[in-house]
Design a protein that fits this description.
It contains six helices and no strands. The chain is globular, with a radius of gyration of 16 Å.
Length: about 150
């Protein structure tokens, strides 16, 4: 029997399996492809915002830009300022990855932590206010290619 997968996004399965899938993929891609990790986190943030909008009756269309959706949610006092900032940081990191093909593990790790906080906020808001996830589970470390290059 396989050991259960340890992830920072397990609690999101109760809301939408796709949220869990995107979180797992982001963690999986982190060591070898931080750019793809950031893209998956951007997608997770987009889906989370759409689910939030749907829960409060403000969902318009999946074609609405993330920026516009977040602005509407904030204007409707649904999205606290600090949470909106987290969404914005994940969105901007995903944009930079999409347009710049950045291979930056530091940015990807930071975005993983921010997306984890977003997921935690969502879960506490809509399911279990007292939920305690435990400490952040770091993803697998990036491969050190210097040993291979020396060989």
């Amino acid at each position: 029997m396989a050991a259960p997968v340890r992830t920072n996004f397990a609690h999101l399965a109760e809301h939408d399996e796709q949220l869990l899938r995107l979180g797992l993929l982001a963690e999986r891609y982190f060591p070898d492809d931080p750019n793809t990790c950031l893209l998956k986190l951007r997608q997770l943030g987009e889906l989370l915002a759409q689910l939030l909008a749907a829960r409060v009756g403000l969902f318009v269309s999946p074609e609405e830009s993330q920026y516009d959706l977040l602005r509407r949610l904030q204007d409707a006092n649904v999205l606290p300022r600090d949470v909106a900032q987290l969404f914005g940081e994940v969105r901007r990191a995903g944009n930079a990855a999409s347009h710049g093909l950045a291979e930056d593990h530091r940015t990807a790790l930071n975005a993983l932590k921010l997306a984890g906080q977003l997921g935690l906020w969502f879960h506490r808001t809509f399911k279990e206010p007292a939920y305690r996830p435990g400490p952040f589970i770091p993803p697998a470390a990036p491969k050190d290619e210097s040993d291979e290059l020396r060989a």
